[in-house]
Amino acid sequence: MTGVPVFSARDVEAAVSPERALEAVREGFLAYSRGEWTMPPKVYVPAYPAGDFRAMPVLGAGHAALKWVTSFPGNPAHGLPTVSGLVLLSDASDGSLRAVLDAGAVTALRTGAAAVLAAEELGRADAETAAVIGAGVNGRAAARSFLARGRRTILWDVDEQRARAAAEALGADIAESREQALGADLLVTVTPGHEVLLDEGSLQPGQHVSLMGADGPGKAEIAVAELARSRVFCDDWEQASHNGELAHAVATGAISRNDATHLGDVLAGTAPGRQSREDITTFDSTGLAIQDLAIALAAIEHAAELNLPTIEL
């Protein structure tokens, strides 16, 4: 038996460019919308208040994958990553393990790709400005995806030094203020979700925001009233309505299933997206195992080129 390739974070990034990640994530959303890929519910293993563990299984394209990943928002203060873990990719025909991948890098790539995919699909056709709030790993991935698409991008973070370092590394610009970033035509928020960034009335006609930070219980980046006055899209209703931005709006009765549209259905042409230039569109992203599978499949396309270490089982 040949060894199983192991992708470090650097290997994942070398194998999958931001543009390829966006293409792969689009393919994943479409396959899920068509019923070709299946995804059991994400399992949360709470270790609050410090953080949580998540188990995310998926089956599709002749493969099965499981991501075992953490979210510990306080870790960076101790020199540790917020997100860590592994993605296990298996052959669905015989159960053999095909690859092991760093979960943090996979998560960052697919998070950035999903944020920008939604922004480009749901934003105005004439959108000019793009901004990312949050310059952590996933925020930098979103900015990198915007830049790869040829969009001038501004960054803002509560930690100005972190924002400046990220902007210099990526070739992005620094927002003059949080207000400037919040006013962008295409906005991506990637924060720990402990503070509401968008109060009622803060979004202007024609804006789009991809809400990437509220991916667990108790998190929110937008006020319920502001979410309710927008045209709402999500990655997956079942997941978002229980552990995303939508959870708060569903709990108060402000939003029901009929008020939210799956991004995959818009991409497939089976549901409408933006319907007017004045629409305010919001995308609630909780992160799906289909996205992780899409990135893992894209990565193994280049396994032979990377001189990867292997493990014997």
Describe the structure.
There is one protein chain. This protein is of the alpha/beta class and about 325 residues long. It folds into 2 domains: about 5-105 and about 290-310, ornithine cyclodeaminase, domain 1, CATH 3.30.1780; about 120-290, NAD(P)-binding Rossmann-like Domain (Rossmann fold, 3-Layer(aba) Sandwich), CATH 3.40.50.720. The protein contains 11 helices and 15 strands. It has helices spanning about 10-15, 20-35, 105-120, 135-150, 160-170, 180, 225-230, 235-245, 245-250, 265-270, 290-300, and strands at about 5, 45, 50-60, 65-70, 85-90, 95-100, 130-135, 155, 175, 185-190, 210, 230-235, 260, 280-285, 310. A hairpin with a 3-residue loop joins strand 2 and strand 3 (about 50-60). Helix 2 packs across helix 3 (about 105-120) and helix 8 (about 235-245) crosses helix 9 (about 245-250). The mean pLDDT is about 95.
Topology:
Elements (H helix, E strand, L loop, with lengths): L3 E4 L1 H7 L2 H16 L9 E5 L3 E10 L2 E9 L13 E7 L5 E6 H20 L7 E4 L3 H12 L4 E4 L3 H11 L2 E2 L3 H5 L3 E4 L18 E4 L12 H5 L2 E4 L2 H7 L1 H8 L7 E3 H6 L12 E4 L4 H12 L9 E2 L2
Parallel strand pairs: 1-6, 7-8, 7-10, 8-9, 10-11, 11-14, 12-13, 12-14
Antiparallel strand pairs: 1-15, 2-3, 3-4, 4-5, 5-6
Helix pairs in contact: 1-3, 2-3, 2-11, 3-4, 3-11, 8-9
Summarize, please:
The chain is α/β, with parallel strands linked by helices and 313 residues long.
